[in-house]
Amino acid sequence: MVETKEKKTNPRSVTGLVISNSMDKTITVQVERRVKHPIYGKFVRRSTKLHAHDQDNDCSVGDKVTLVETRPISKSKTWQLVSIDSKVSEADKIEVVTGIDE
């Protein structure tokens, strides 16, 4: 009797800010986390850039998104867009892209 083992997957999910959407069906998301310094005890911000698959090209720079880990789609893409938590408005979009306060 041959038993088949089912893989139970519980993929990681992260939330971050879209910093680039210039590639086709790909976004770059910056994920920040707080880590306690081993000696001084102060919490330090660490950030990671992730490439994620955006099938419909829905995201724009400045959006807050949720990603889930998936199988490798390309050399650098192992994350997929699940949801857009908050869209950036047109006025904020100009500020994010140019860095100018109006």
Give me the Rg, rounded. 17 Å
Top CATH class: Mainly Beta
Indicate the CATH topology.
Answer: OB fold (Dihydrolipoamide Acetyltransferase, E2P)
Q: What pattern of helices and strands is seen along the backbone?
A: EEEEEH
Number of strands: 5
Sheet having the most strands: 5 strands, mixed, barrel
Strand content: over 45%
Using the 3D structure, state the CATH architecture. Answer: Beta Barrel
Tell me the overall shape: flat
> Approximately how much helix is present in the residues?
under 10%
| End-to-end separation | 71 Å
Mean pLDDT: 89
The CATH superfamily is Nucleic acid-binding proteins
Which strand order does the major sheet show?
A: 1-2-3-5-4
| Poorly predicted tracts of residues | none
- What is the count of DSSP helices, taking H or I runs of 4+ residues? 1
